[in-house]
Specification:
This protein is of the alpha/beta class. The protein contains 13 helices and eleven strands. The strands form three sheets. It has a five-stranded mixed beta sheet, with helices on both faces. Helix 2 links the parallel strand 1 and strand 2. Bound molecules: D-xylonic acid. D-xylonic acid (TK8) binds next to loops.
């Protein structure tokens, strides 16, 4: 082929090849899939908000409330596409997607976030809170903010805390009422080293696992049990594969409302205020329905045939004693001053 013809052919082909590579390679949204500013100035944006739990779960209800508020307050300029039940992946995968600017919002438990902000592990200590109002006071106070302030360096912005709730143990082997009853149980835990080490200290055999894999692991008996709040146990039908429910209430897990910093930094001050206020307002609503649902779920799970047992205060104290070395170890790792501050905040909230 004549040299000039070859060069002309290359000159024609390369730009379109480059456009293809750049187009599919980036995959990144530029702050939602922003459209040119529609009339009225503000940009139109379509953003992806994904969570791990079902639409009927209080977390799903809270996200729909958030969507409703944001779309109303922006006159539809910001459209929130909602994805439930880990359609976009589990907590850790969606959190990574936010860091990369591939997704705009997710609301994970704080436990799997310890790989990003290790200090969130203090909320995995057992029996820290006696009731949800104490948790609200600590999370919405200076300590909760101190931890939110650690997120931007990791490409994340935290707009506040919602409620996952008090965790209870289910399993397919036996009632668990004492520290000894945990011995030998294969228990699924969140991807969190405090939970892993605490269950090991009780003689259990813990396996860290993403939430969306839990039902099939229970059904196939890969694991004997798991632990989650009552609303989650019911919403994910764990009662169908877990005969025993033990009301351990061993840990209160918060959700943290996360926004991709790549997206957040593209927003105007007005857009940021709308998002922040909506996360707080929807969070208040979500906490309320979470507490109502947990009450209803206990009765419903009993009616569905789960064998429910309480755990006495004396036995909870023995459980706490058995895992004390684990808590002491992680208090050093997370910062003893921070742990001290948490217990002081709890004491203040109790008064
Ligand atoms: C849902 C999870 C879940 C958590 C777990 O995304 O993994 O057990 O309690 O609810 O965050």
């Amino acid at each position: 082929m004549k040299k000039w013809v070859k060069n002309a052919a290359i000159a024609l082909v390369i730009p379109s090849l480059l456009a293809t590579v750049v187009g599919c390679g980036s995959g990144k949204t530029d702050g939602g899939s922003a459209q040119p500013a529609a009339s009225g100035g503000a940009k139109e944006r379509v953003i992806k908000a994904g969570i791990g739990l079902n639409e009927d779960h209080p977390q799903g209800q809270g996200l729909k409330k958030f969507k409703e508020i944001v779309e109303a307050k922006t006159g539809g300029k910001i459209k929130v596409q909602t994805y439930f039940a880990a359609q976009l992946g589990d907590d850790q995968k969606m959190t990574e997607a936010l860091k990369g600017g591939l997704q705009e919002i997710t609301i994970p438990s704080t436990s799997p976030l310890v790989g990003t902000v290790k200090e969130y592990g203090i909320f995995d200590f057992p029996f820290v809170f006696n009731d949800p109002k104490e948790a609200d006071a600590v999370l919405d106070g200076p300590l909760g903010k101190k931890l939110l302030d650690k997120l931007p360096q990791h490409g994340l912005v935290g707009l506040g805390y919602w409620e996952n709730g008090f965790r209870n143990l289910t399993n397919s082997k036996r009632p668990v009422a004492t520290a000894d009853d945990f011995k030998g149980l294969k228990i699924r835990t969140m991807q969190n080293k405090v939970h892993l080490d605490a269950f090991k200290a009780l003689g259990a055999n813990p396996t860290p696992m993403a939430f969306s894999e839990v039902f099939s692991a229970l059904e196939s008996k890969t694991v004997d049990g798991q632990e989650n709040p009552l609303a989650t146990i019911e919403s994910n039908k764990f009662n169908e594969v877990q005969p025993y429910l033990s009301l351990t209430n061993h840990v209160y897990t918060p959700f943290v409302f996360l926004v991709s910093k790549k997206f957040w930094d593209q927003l105007s001050a007005d857009e940021k205020k709308i998002m922040q206020d909506a996360a707080v307002e929807a969070g208040k609503y979500q906490r309320e329905i979470s507490r109502q649902q947990n009450g209803k779920s206990l009765e419903s799970l009993k009616a569905k045939g789960m064998k429910v047992n309480e755990v006495s205060a004396a036995d909870k104290a023995k459980i706490q004693e058995a895992i004390k070395p684990v808590i002491d170890k992680y208090a050093k790792e997370f910062g003893e001053d921070l742990v001290k501050e948490m217990y002081e905040e709890v004491k203040k909230a109790r008064k």
